[in-house]
Amino acid sequence: MITRLSHATLFVNDQDKAYDFYVTKLGFQVKTDASLPNGFRWLTVTAPEQPDLEISLLSPLTGEMGYDEETRNAFTVLLEKGALGAGVLYTPDCRASYEELKAKGVVFKSEPKEQFYGIEAVITDGCGNWFSMTQTK
Amino acid sequence: MISGCSEVYVFNFNMTTLSPDIYERLVNAKVFIDDHFEESLHLATISLRANMSVFHFHRLFTKVYRITPHQYLTKKRLGKARQLLSTGSLNISVVCTDIGFESHGSFSTLFKKYQGLSPQSYRDNALQKQQRATANPLQVIPNCFLTPEISKK
């Protein structure tokens, strides 16, 4: 019986940049940071109030994950475009988080706006992904 | 000085919105906590950063962040404590004072309350996990991520 999601993968084009965004800027905590001799790096982080869901920040662009060149090239294009919508990040106050993260240099695709379901801004991680940052009603 | 019109609330979609100026001031205060939580901080000092009275600041901060300033400060300190305990070799008393607690006893009690483990047990667990990950990373990395055949199918 499957009872919960314990890990979710987020593909990023640069794990060091991803570390800076998720840990330094968003305040996520590093759960595991382990590397293999071949360069594969297993980096997982957790959101402050969700310590049991590990987000693995993986780079599909290096050979260690086993993707062939064609697949890696496709990932490169998508990540460079920042085309991957990765999910919804909850915040208790969208406008406050927007002001704070903007001051830290985080790039937004859109400012906080009233939506039917709450207040939403669209945030980018600078590593290929964007998220809805939402204060739900 | 707080101007009256900067505190106008707009009710929309059943959500209360504060003015941009208020947000900026609250964020300034929050960032001040982020940057100075290791020091002895009092609510009066923090609310000054927001240019608000203690009462007004406490009310608005709690409204926006759904946590009181004091709870947020405690969270920041305990987060730093977890980091220091799991990555460094500092004596626990030093960790306690480095993150702004004045009493080792109150730090240990609070840490155990939030973390479910004493600072020493937390450190022991974290170091064991770290040593395992360093000595044998394959014990902590799900094998499917290392199996090229899976990504090719």
Architecture overview:
The complex is a heterodimer of chains A (137) and B (153). Chain A has a four-stranded mixed beta sheet, with helices on one face. A four-stranded mixed beta sheet of chain A has the order 5-8-7-6. Chain A is globular, with a radius of gyration of 16 Å. Chain A has one domain (7-136): 2,3-Dihydroxybiphenyl 1,2-Dioxygenase, domain 1. In chain A, a hairpin with a 2-residue loop joins β3 (41-47) and β4. Chain A has helices at residues 15-25, 69-81, 94-103; strands at residues 7-11, 29-35, 41-47, 50-58, 84-90, 108-115, 118-124, 129-136. By secondary structure, chain A is α/β, with parallel strands linked by helices. Chain A is built from three helices and eight strands, in the order βαβββαβαβββ. Chain A is 25% helix and 42% strand. Chain B is mainly alpha-helical. Chain B folds into two domains: 4-66; 78-136, Orthogonal Bundle (Arc Repressor Mutant, subunit A). Chain B has a two-stranded antiparallel ribbon. The N and C termini of chain B lie far apart (65 Å). The model of chain B is unreliable at 1-15 (pLDDT under 50). Chain A binds chain B through residues 7, 27, 29, 32-36, 40, 42, 48, 56, 58, 64-68, 71, 92-93, 95-96, 99-100, 103, 114, 116, 118-119, 135, 137, and chain B through 12-15, 17-18, 20, 23-24, 26-27, 30-31, 64-67, 75, 79, 82-83, 129, 133-134, 137-138, 140-142, 145-152.
